[in-house]
TrEMBL record:
SUPFAM superfamilies: Dimerization-anchoring domain of cAMP-dependent PK regulatory subunit, P-loop containing nucleoside triphosphate hydrolases. It comes from the Eukaryota. The lineage of its organism: Eukaryota, Metazoa, Spiralia, Lophotrochozoa, Mollusca. The keyword RNA-binding does not apply. It comes from Octopus sinensis (East Asian common octopus). Gene3D superfamilies: cAMP-dependent protein kinase regulatory subunit, dimerization-anchoring domain, P-loop containing nucleotide triphosphate hydrolases. This is Adenylate kinase 8-like.
Amino acid sequence: MDATMRPMSLPPEFTNYAEEHQLFELMKFLIEQLLLKKPERPIEFLINILTDRLKEVVKVIIFGPPASGKTTLAKMICEKLDLVYLNEDRLLIKTSTCLLDEAREYQVENKPVPTDLWVRMLWEETERGKCKRNGWVFEGVFSTREAIAKMQQQGIHPTHCIFLVALESILVERAAGKRIDQRSGDIYHMTFDWPLSNDVKANLVEAPGCTESEIIQKYLAYEYALPGLIQRFKKNYKNINADQPKGDILSKALCFLSRKPQSMAPHTPRVILLGAFGSGKKTQAHLLAKRFQLVNVSCSQLIKQAVTNETSTGLIAKSYLDQGLNCKYQKPN
């Protein structure tokens, strides 16, 4: 490559190397971390990230009306993907002493813990240990657009957002049969998910705040805040119907979480068209090549060229063509 020539053209090997080793994604991740964390020593900060081999992890936040199954889904996702489950109670247990004391002061006075304090506790927890290495699932606490805005300003940006959807009548019915294990905190239901163990049954109690009037009030408040929440996560959210077996809900959630966000990095498109004889593969290949300026590689054309040039592969293909058979793949010597 001659640096004096203009315009300069990069050899294909350069772009192939960058695509193979995901250099564009790496640079995007490093720049994101710089902008979010704003370290005083950026070079040292970047070196530590590369040294610790940190990577972008799955960060999920789950929204939904009361009794829609947010906690159950969050725990199933954590168990399946080895993530950390976070909610209001977990934050109060795991947070540092100074923040915990500050939160306890509000609770002793029967005052709600301010959103700013919840955000600080969540940020502190997501920046250490398994949360930082593996990822996390968060549900509860933040239910307004203003609270989510403060969370994002703090530098907490979920990679995926799940909204559980259900009718009000279904939620009221669910809430009536909701039971909680006093020891483990696991949630069960008298109709849909009754435990088999007698020991667990003996420790079940009615869930607080599950009367019909309370559920309707919470449902209306959630529906009022829902448009603002969706607006905040419009690029990475999914609605899932909560009125179905929890295994189906988990399957749809995992399918959503397995999808990587669309990358803006340049890449070389490689397309394979498969289909039965007469299905229009050649026509579609021609249209794609014309639309996206791709190289149309026809297998039949390659075989004919190899036979005409009498290459080793062409001689093998000719024996099949003479018999009127399709060519079978055989690696040349």
